[in-house]
Write a structure and sequence with these properties.
The protein is α+β, with helices and mostly antiparallel strands and 155 residues long. The protein starts with a strand and ends with a strand. The chain has 4 helices and 7 strands, in the order βββαββαααββ. The mean pLDDT is 95. The strands form 2 sheets. A 5-stranded mixed beta sheet has the order 1-2-3-4-5, with no helix packed on it. A two-stranded antiparallel ribbon has the order 6-7. The protein has a single domain, classed as 4-Layer Sandwich (Metallo-beta-lactamase, Chain A).
Amino acid sequence: MRIIHTPGHAIGHCCLYFPADEILYLGDIDLGLFGSWYGDRVSSIDQTINSIDTVVTIPARVFITSHETGIIGGDMVEPAERHRAVINERETALVDFLDKPGTFGEIICRWITYKKPREPLKIFNFMESAHIRKHLERLLRNEKIRFENGMFSVV
């Protein structure tokens, strides 16, 4: 077995590769339709993207996730691209919304990550906030948005 460091979801996240069996255990890189979870304090969108790019290069024929997707057979390129596209879709929706300046609270009420309010609202509001915060940090760092007078807006 080879341990492959794949941070993003968490700093120490790893995938387990069994070369003799061509099996890659993806752990929390679940490749589901929701997209990646990078809402923890130490999570990173950029590391998540890099880790998705890394696992695609591993010569496995079976991929096992620890969440909803389960077992994926064959080529992982399409599921990985679809999974990565969710990140881009969230970011595009956020930038589109910020065409007009908005506060953090107004952005959260858009439900960009979860698409609609869910129950228990307090928990999902926290998770929405965590994901959006990561996107805002990334967009600020890449100078695609700015923050002035309590408002975010497109540069």
